[in-house]
Amino acid sequence: MYAIIKVSRMEVFDNRTLRLTPEQVKARTGCTHVINGYFFNGKFQPLGWTVIDGKIISRDAYQDWGISAGSDGKPRMLTDRGGSFLSGVPLLKNGAKLKRNLTPDVARPAERTAVGWMPDGRVLIWCDKMILTREQQQDKLLALGCVDGLMLDGGGSTQGVFPASKVVSSRKVPTMLCFWAETEETKEDSKVETKKKVCLDAGHSASNKVNKSPDGTYFEHEFALDMAKRIKAHLERNGVEVVETRPDGGDVSLGERCRISNAAKPDLFVSLHSNATGTLSTGSDGWGNARGWECYVYGLSGARYKAAKTILASVEGVAPAIRSTPILAKPGLYVLAHTSAPAVLIEHGFHTSREDVAYLKDSAYREKLAAAEARGILENLGVAWKEVSELDAAVDKLAAAGIIDSPDRWKKLDFTENSVRLLIIKMAATLK
User: Fold this and answer.
1) What strands, in cross-sheet order, belong to the sheet with 84-87?
2) Which of 13, 134, 278, 399 can pair with 407 through a Cys bridge, CB separation 3.0 to 4.6 Å?
3) 41: burial class by Cβ within 10 Å (0-12, 13-18, 19+)?
4) CA-to-CA separations, 378 to 309, 342, 357, 412, in angstroms, rounded
5) pLDDT (tens digit, 9 = 90+) per residue, 85-140?
6) Within a 10 A sphere around the Cβ of 386, how many other Cβ atoms?
């Protein structure tokens, strides 16, 4: 959403102690528009230059440009750190795109909050869940007629309330920008890109000890749950909401799985499994020759079939074997027949195949396959894939190994001398 308004007054709201929502800030101050402020650290302290009622709350020699309210209370983008000032990432100046070296966390595609200035003095306030890079945000502001522009915090901090619309977030932020508009000049666009949603169904339950490899080293329920978690991480990283039917690995009936999905109203239902050959097709030791990835749908048409084909195209080249007819109609499968969303059921290989089981048990292969399937799901939903930065990948690896806590803070380069000391000690302990 965005609004183009003639501003009569602007203030930086100190939310460090109160920790209010934008709705509460709007009600408390009487402003017409409120949005989140700039980045902050793990101690809930704002970063960059922040001045509230003439008092410097935080300072940063690097961040020189920001939004400032002069003696008339009207906002300007300048370096004057007056009575109410909040720095940000400069986007535009005099109609030209500005470039600054940004950390990966700031530069990555994300939800965005920004402020722009029009040639006639009106202010554009942008607060949207649309995933944008810095360059795309600059293009948006230019297209709307801005000559100057400033980016604030984004991602999960993106939040704001306008007279006719709002963008919500569960995250609290330490500063907010409040604007008072001359209502007769207000122009608001409340169109916000709807967040896509996927239901991931990890097949079977922990009590199922039957669906396993003949040697007992692989269980389908464990594999399905692990794949659901891996795919979920990729989808959520790319801004897709994920609902799980079996999030804790417990026992969930087929009917309950369908109820969960139908109540959530996802854009796509994906059930995760591994296959098995019948007893007549296996040898005396239980192993068979059938192997390969395949996908089941209720019928070979419509959105479900399109989703299956898109996921298949992404998996090709990653899965070591794909069935000769990789997409099959299976209208008798319960979850395909009783879910209202387009539904696909993926069989990742045969746990009665020695060759497939060797892959299905391998963590590195699971990650490659999960990433490929997540890419296919995102493409089907029309959501762009975001690459994992080298820093984020390293932090995730250390977090998975239990070496660091609070990975989000490390990704923001928000660490103390003591946290670095503990990291060095833990890393040294892993060396032989």
Assistant:
1) 55-58, 50-52, 84-87, 66-69, 75-78
2) 399
3) middle
4) 13, 14, 27, 25
5) 898 999 998 889 988 778 777 778 889 999 999 988 899 999 998 888 888 899 99
6) 17
Residue 301 corresponds to which amino acid?
A: S
Strand, coil or helix: what is 264?
A: helix
CA 366, 368, 372, 375 torsion-angle sign: positive
Kindly give the interhelix angle for 220-237 and 363-381, rounded to the nearest 10 degrees: 50
Domains of the chain (ranges; CATH) run 2-189 (no CATH), 197-381 (3.40.630.40), 391-429 (no CATH)
Tokens of 241: 């909401």
Q: Report the number of secondary-structure helices (H) and strands (E) in the chain.
A: 12, 23
Closest to 295 in 3D by CA, of 246, 224, 343, 230: 343
Is the CA virtual torsion 53, 58, 63, 64 positive or negative?
positive
**Residue 341 · residue 202 · CB < 8 Å:** no
Can you tell me the distance from the alpha carbon of 84 to that of 12, in angstroms, rounded to the nearest whole number? Answer: 6
Burial label, 428 (beta-carbon count in 10 A; 0-12, 13-18, 19+): exposed
- The whole model's pTM is what? 0.54
Q: Report which residue type is found at 48.
A: G
Q: 400-432, pLDDT tens digit by residue?
A: 777 887 776 777 677 778 888 888 888 888 887
